[in-house]
Amino acid sequence: MVEPRSDSAVPAFWQGLGLPGLIDAHVHFMPQRLMSAVWGYFDEAGPLIGAEWPIRYRDSEEERLAFLRGLGVRAFPSLLYPHRPGMAESLNEWAAGFAARVPECVQTATFFPEPGVEEYTGRAVEAGARVFKVHLQVGGFDPRAKELDPVWGTLADAGVPALVHAGSGPVANGYTGPGPFGEVLARHPRLTAIVAHLGAPEFDGFFALADRYESVHLDTTMIFTRFAALAPFPNALLPRLRDLGLAGRVLLGTDFPNIPYEYAHQLESLAALGLGDDWLRAVCWHGPARLFGLA
């Protein structure tokens, strides 16, 4: 497989694999006021960023949608997340509306440990949410919080995946790492989870969770790229990465639009691993299609 070295080469990449396009499991769309605030935080290299991180695709919502469609990205979530109480329910309402007007969007929701979280999470599931974004680093909360125990149970029972930033990259807090989220999985072993960034930098610990729980997936977001804000992936885990990918449990993720390089670079980096075309097909389409229930 030829590695795509520019965005213009992305369609030829997936066409060469015989795929109908790409499914990106880690894409951010959110209300513009919140998106602008996130971009401002990146501009300032805030305490949770830890490095200079220029945003490459700082475009309007319409331009970003057109860009993804032009690349051949056929499905993506609108990952959004609260950083304080009182935000999540309104974000879920916005995300439902976004998914209703953007056919490629996998309807997304989120939550925060606060009064009423069980009720509004249940309403989001009933309204069609197919993935929940949970950002333990930005949210700064303990996934083991008592308010969240029934929420994790709701998601486990519904088979709705939670895409969780649980790794300590780029900056740790007391609730990141495989320990706290591992305790959630021990209580809810049927919970379908997607660990963002392959769990960077605690790759070993999160791969161990994937070995223990068959519903744990991992996304590739920003790993293997030349951007060093997270952590280098250990070569010793490449055989396990290959096996999990072929099993449909490694998903393409990019962090679009909040990336400091071309979109194509993530695909180029994955192709350069040399894990084979079948692995790339599984990561870029078949695994996320199965997980999100896409045709």
From TrEMBL:
Q: Which UniProt keywords apply?
A: Hydrolase, Lyase
Q: Which Gene3D superfamilies match?
A: Metal-dependent hydrolases
Q: Which GO terms describe its biological process?
A: secondary metabolic process
Citing just one GO molecular function, the answer is:
carboxy-lyase activity
Q: Which CDD domains match?
A: metallo-dependent_hydrolases
What InterPro entries does the entry give?
ACMSD, Amidohydro-rel, Metal_Hydrolase
Which GO cellular component term is one of those annotated? cytoplasm
Q: Does the keyword Hydrolase apply?
A: yes
Cross-referenced Pfam families, in alphabetical order?
A: Amidohydro_2 (PF04909)
The residue ranges of the Amidohydrolase-related domain are 23-294
Q: What is this protein called?
A: Amidohydrolase
- From which organism does this entry originate? Actinomadura chibensis
Q: What is the lineage of its organism?
A: Bacteria, Bacillati, Actinomycetota, Actinomycetes, Streptosporangiales
